[in-house]
Amino acid sequence: MLLAAYFVVATLKPAWLNQRSPVAGALTFTQAPVSTPAAAGTSSFRLAASKASAAVVSINTSKAAQKNPHGNDPWFKFFFGDKGNESQAGLGSGVIVNASGYILTNNHVVEGADEIEVVLNDSRHTVAKVIGTDPDTDLAILKIELDRLPVIVLGNSDSLQVGDQVMAIGNPFGVGQTVTGGIVSALGRNQLGINTFENFIQTDAAINPGNSGGALVDINGNLQGINTAIYSRSGGSMGIGFAIPVSTAKLVMEGIVKDGRVTRGWIGVEPNDLSPELAETFGVKAKQGVIITGVLQNGPAAVSGMRPGDVVISVGGKQVGNVSELLTQVAALKPGTASKFNLLRRDEKLELEVTPGVRPRPPKPVQ
Fold it and tell me: Model pTM?
């Protein structure tokens, strides 16, 4: 009977005969089952992260200390020490967008820097020079001289939709290159008081200090935006980050590299958001649009026939709902080329052909 029982167990449950008692003091583990790598298009972002990360760089800046006029006063040194004599260091990120060494980053990352060091993901490092900056969009173009540079693929930010998955890549707090994931939370964010021209992609992918100038990429690893700012009460990520669309960044880069500056349209008006008080003052019945409260004499708008009290409804076929949208639409116009403006003048609908001029540069601050 014992032999028969042994035969049955050996045939049906052979594992029972191979079990051994654990050795005293030995560690035991539960081994996870072997899994195959996730295929592209599934929940893993490994391919996109690998593709894009190589072209994202860290940027270290330094600014020489400004000599304090009282620095040599012994009483000043006694009470305050050598304050103001230390150099200032900054940290940010950037994206290699061209094999010739052009790097996109934020203007506030490199503004005022005396020396800029770029560190690649493969640990190579070199000094970069500033090709040009555009404070109106908070973008800057750097250039480095290295061979075999990885280059990111530019995506189409105009095709982004709310809910699309994205990743933020940069060097937060200087801990090293980091990839965070999230979705597109909103599009066309403006009136944030960050830049003159605002058209931000909002995302909940974690963005922290040091991420500025880094890449916002889609699930294919293509560049969709340049991470720029966060909304935060603590200084760290709270799930509300903003990126400049790559469509804007591309125009800025092409303008700076080709002409040394960004050329924008300008029509010479003083716009205001439409309010019930302004509507009553100018006698208009429009419910949406931007009201023009002033027109520069002999400016492009005045020459076309635009008057104070006109409400701009659309520019070039695109509707405008606030001052920020109007500025952005006008800035995108090509100077010297006429464009259609749809207006409401009291109860009358009008269509004017306005030929924009070149937007004047803001005056430099007096030092």
Answer: 0.73
CB contact at 8 A, 127 and 96: no
| Average model confidence (pLDDT) across the chain | 83
Query: Would you list the DSSP string of 50-117?
Result: HHHHTTEEEEEEEEPPPPPTTTT-HHHHHHHTTTT-S-EEEEEEEEE-STT-EEEEEHHHHTT-SEEE
Same-domain status, 138 and 62: yes
Which residues are bridge partners to 119 per DSSP?
58, 125
Q: What spatial distance separates the first Cα and last Cα of the chain, rounded to whole Å?
A: 104
Question: What is the bridge-based pairing of β-strands 269-273 and 129-134?
Answer: unpaired
Last-in-domain residue among 191, 226, 259: 259
Q: Evaluate whether residue 364 is within a structural domain.
A: no
Cα–Cα distance, 304 to 341 (Å, whole number) = 10
Compute the residue count for the chain: 367
Please state, in angstroms and as integers, the Cα–Cα distance from residue 216 to each residue in 63, 173, 200, 212, following that order.
28, 17, 12, 11
Q: Compute CA distances 165 → 160, 171, 172, 183, 275, whole Å.
A: 10, 20, 20, 4, 37
Q: Is 212 part of the annotated catalytic residue set?
A: yes
pLDDT of 13 > 60? The answer is no
Domain holding 173, by residue range, is 157-259
Cα–Cα dist 235/13, whole Å: 61
Domain with 134 in it: what CATH number? 2.40.10.10
Q: Which of 212, 237, 324, 339 is catalytic?
A: 212
Q: Hunting for tokens 């609908």 — which residue is that?
A: 349
What number is the average pLDDT over the span 280-305?
89
Whether 108 is a known active-site residue: answer: yes
Residue 250 Ramachandran class (φ > 0 left, ψ -120 to 50 alpha, else beta): alpha
pLDDT at 218: 94
Catalytic residue among 53, 58, 93, 108: 108
Identify which of 138, 51, 156 has the alpha carbon closest to the alpha carbon of residue 92.
138
**Active site annotation includes 138:** yes
Q: Exactly one of 134, 138, 204, 218 is catalytic; which is it?
A: 138
